[in-house]
TrEMBL record:
Cited InterPro entries: Leu_rpt_41 (IPR026137), LRR_dom_sf (IPR032675)
Cross-referenced PANTHER family: LEUCINE-RICH REPEAT-CONTAINING PROTEIN 41, MUF1
Organism (species): Quiscalus mexicanus (Great-tailed grackle)
UniProt feature, compositional bias: Basic and acidic residues: 190-215
Protein name (Swiss-Prot/TrEMBL): Leucine-rich repeat-containing protein 41
Skewed-composition ranges (Low complexity): 326-340
Gene: Lrrc41
Start and end residues of each stretch annotated as Disordered: 182-264, 314-340
A cellular component term, taken from the record's GO annotations: cytoplasm
Keyword vocabulary terms for this entry: Leucine-rich repeat, Phosphoprotein, Repeat, Ubl conjugation pathway
Length: 715
């Protein structure tokens, strides 16, 4: 019943000898220590022999800490992948296959073929036969296209297990087990079908059989084949081209519990026939005749095989031999992963589209994140192709990838995915430096293509570099009616674009389930625009609970601000850096306080960056006076030029109100980031000590003088 957190915190200081980043947010020091310990040992940052407690020949740092690792980051030349796939770390890899959930790649560099082979084995074990559900890649200014596409395809559950990727033609041990189970199942099903046919076609003969003969068929079904599973001769002839194991079209199978190592030794070849439908054998022959793989040892053959068809670029989805439904994506606007857009036109055999026929489908991840990785047109076409059948994907984050017109290519793949009956895609976040089209047009196009989305976030810093190159609003997209959507969260960061409610209106009308709306860096074209927006929100979004404005000038919209604060449906309101008190009077602050006091539904009020100062902070304490019916739980006054003496006065006033209310106060959290509390450390410590006796206080050690110097230097 005793907490071990202090022990793990001390171990961190003794072993790591560094200050952990964001230590205030660490909830479990045991997990934090063991994950960091594993990563530091793996990458050679921590010398185990330097600590006498760890210098033991019976102790394996990686093996003992691996069961506690849920997140792992691989960097630079992927040395960690080579180490983890080494023979002596077999048990470590098996532990990670069960515990690891998030796999990150950061600051990657180009690597040779042997390192890529190690990466393939690692991804195959951790994703296809493991528990990894999220793959993130970040900070890769000049990506190695081969390596990038390899990670994407394997994250999507694709893998061709022939000579192109493994050192021999055999599949891994887990694939062989699946293959064995599949063969047994096929043999049993075939025997059962033949028995059923015999029973149905010769009912008269059955009655004449002896009891032993009558039971012979059932006995063969129950006992199964006596010999080991047999392989198809077609597979033997083209072992480097035929996938291994049983495909999993939906990518949602649970990880295997087998501890067999990824094997690179050939398995004995069988000469007997393996019962498979004629269709499957025909497809293999056709695939061979097309000559997609000139050199089976070349990784490029897997990553950059072009799915070229003679007429309309037909892309046939992978068909398994168990009888799954087969679909075809044609090059029409309704279903093509990537055609007909300015940013993704394919010319004469561009090596960017992956042939889904050539690869086997395994378990895939549900979250993909790409941060600060430039994506070329060819890479976007490959990603679009993968997305079109990535049914396990739930979250996609594309941040600062320089998409520009290629965003249409990505949306095309997602549109094809959304039409799949087992699609689980729910969250899309797109952010970039420059916007290729107006934000509201992109939002409309996205919701028209993906009505099942629950969360959509669109964020741009600036308009296009050359305003003349920015396309005009698409008539077809702007005028098309948006189908009713499942959208619950909508976040839009405008690149200093005017917020026209008339463009937002169709989106809100189609989003009856909207619960959270965030508008960032928008300009209001006229004084009446905000009032019109509030009317639309009240009419179209009855379920709206959270509303946020960031960096929107509301100095001249005091009436609308008060209307929002008295809205009985809103539970959280954010006015962040909105210049609320830039040209206001003391009466406006009093009206805000009285409005919040009367609103019993508002739970959170966030006012960062509005120049409250000491006197306005002290006045806000009256929200919790004895005559207040407010249920406010959280108050955020970060970045508001608050000094220690003002915070202490606010604390004393708050203590008085609590005493008048008999110690009952709904207020639970005060956020104080980036205020001037370092100007008088003693007074600040006293104020914080007394505040923490009343509520939770979240603050930071902020150097206001340095921040001011940085501000001056930027100016």
């Amino acid at each position: 019943g005793l907490s071990t957190q202090p022990i793990w915190r001390k171990l961190w200081d003794d072993v790591m000898k560094t200050r952990p980043p964001n230590s205030e947010s660490i909830t479990c020091w045991r997990k934090k220590f063991l994950e960091t310990f594993f990563s530091n040992v793996l990458h050679g940052v921590l010398d185990v022999s330097s600590d006498w407690r760890l210098h033991d020949r019976h102790f394996s740092p990686l093996l003992h800490s691996s069961p506690h690792v849920s997140q792992l980051t691989l960097c630079n030349m992927l040395q960690g992948a080579v180490e983890l796939t080494a023979e002596h770390n077999h048990e470590v890899l098996e532990n990670l296959a069960a515990s690891l959930r998030v796999l990150k790649f950061q600051h990657l560099l180009s690597c040779d073929q042997s390192i890529r082979r190690s990466l393939v084995l690692l991804l195959h074990r951790l994703i296809h036969h493991g528990s990894v559900s999220q793959v993130s890649m970040c900070s890769w200014p000049v990506p190695d296209t081969v390596l990038l596409v390899l990670i994407l395809t394997m994250s999507a559950g694709f893998w061709r297990s022939g000579n192109a990727l493994t050192c021999h033609s055999s599949p891994c041990g887990l694939c062989r087990e699946e293959d064995k189970a599949q063969s047994q199942q096929s043999t049993q099903e075939g025997t059962e079908r033949s028995c059923n046919a015999e029973r149905e076609g010769s009912g008269a003969e059955k009655q004449k059989r002896s009891p032993k003969e009558a039971d012979a068929c059932m006995t063969s079904v129950l006992s199964g084949p006596r010999s080991p599973p047999l392989r198809n001769p077609a597979c033997e002839e083209t072992s480097s081209e035929v996938p291994c194991g049983r495909p999993n079209i939906h990518g949602g199978s649970s990880p295997h519990s087998s501890s067999e190592q990824l094997s690179c030794h050939p398995i004995p070849q069988k000469t007997c026939r393996w019962q498979k439908p004629a269709v499957g054998r025909k497809r293999r022959c056709l695939r061979r005749s097309r000559g997609h793989y000139a050199d089976p040892e070349d990784l490029y053959d897997f990553v950059f095989t072009v799915a070229r068809e003679d007429n309309s670029g037909l892309l046939e989805k992978n068909r398994t031999t168990e009888g799954e439904n087969t679909e075809s994506w044609t090059s029409s606007s309704s279903g093509s992963p990537c055609t007909g857009h300015a940013g993704c036109k394919k010319r004469g055999g561009a090596a960017g589209i992956l042939s889904l026929k050539a690869a086997h489908r395994f378990r895939s991840v549900s979250t993909l994140e790409l941060f600060s990785i430039p994506l070329t047109g060819e890479t976007c076409r490959t990603l679009s192709n993968l997305l079109s059948s990535w049914v396990s994907l739930e979250n996609l984050v594309l941040s600062y990838n320089g998409l520009n017109a290629n965003i249409s290519c990505i949306l095309s793949g997602l549109r094809a995915l959304s039409r799949h009956p087992e699609c689980r895609f729910r969250v899309l976040r797109v952010s970039d430096m420059f916007s290729h089209m107006p934000c509201m047009e992109l939002v409309r196009c996205t919701l028209s293509a993906l009505p099942q989305l629950h969360t959509l976030s669109v964020s741009f810093d600036l308009k296009n570099q050359l305003e003349g190159t920015r396309p005009e609003a698409s008539t077809s997209c702007s005028e098309a009616e948006i189908p009713e959507s499942c959208l619950e969260v909508l976040e839009i960061r405008f690149p200093r674009e005017p917020l026209h409610t008339v463009f937002l209106l169709p989106v809100l009308k189609a989003s009856k389930s909207l619960q959270q709306l965030s508008l960032d860096s928008a300009t209001l074209p006229c004084p009446q625009e905000l009032g019109l927006l509030l009317e639309v929100l009240k009419e179209c979004t009855p379920n709206l609970k959270k509303l946020s404005f960031h960096d929107v000038n509301l100095a001249e919209h005091q009436k609308e601000v008060l209307l929002l604060l008295q809205d009985p449906g809103l539970q959280e309101i954010t006015f962040s850096f909105c210049r609320l008190f830039e040209s206001s009077t003391a009466e406006f602050l009093s009206e805000i306080i009285n409005t919040v006091k009367r609103n019993s539904s508002l739970k959170s009020l966030k006012l960062p960056g509005n120049r409250l100062g000491n006197h306005r902070l002290v006045a806000l304490a009256d929200i919790f006076s004895e005559d207040s019916s407010s249920s406010l739980c959280q108050l955020d006054v970060s970045s508001n030029c608050i000094k220690p003496d003002g915070l202490l006065e606010f604390t004393k006033k708050l203590e008085g109100h609590i005493q008048q209310r008999g110690g009952q106060l709904p207020f639970t959290q005060l956020r104080l980031f980036q205020n001037w509390l370092d100007q008088d450390a003693e007074t600040a410590q006293e104020a914080l000590r007394r505040l923490r006796a009343l509520c939770s206080v979240v603050n930071d050690a902020w150097d206001s003088s340095q921040a001011f110097a940085d501000y001056i230097s930027v100016m």
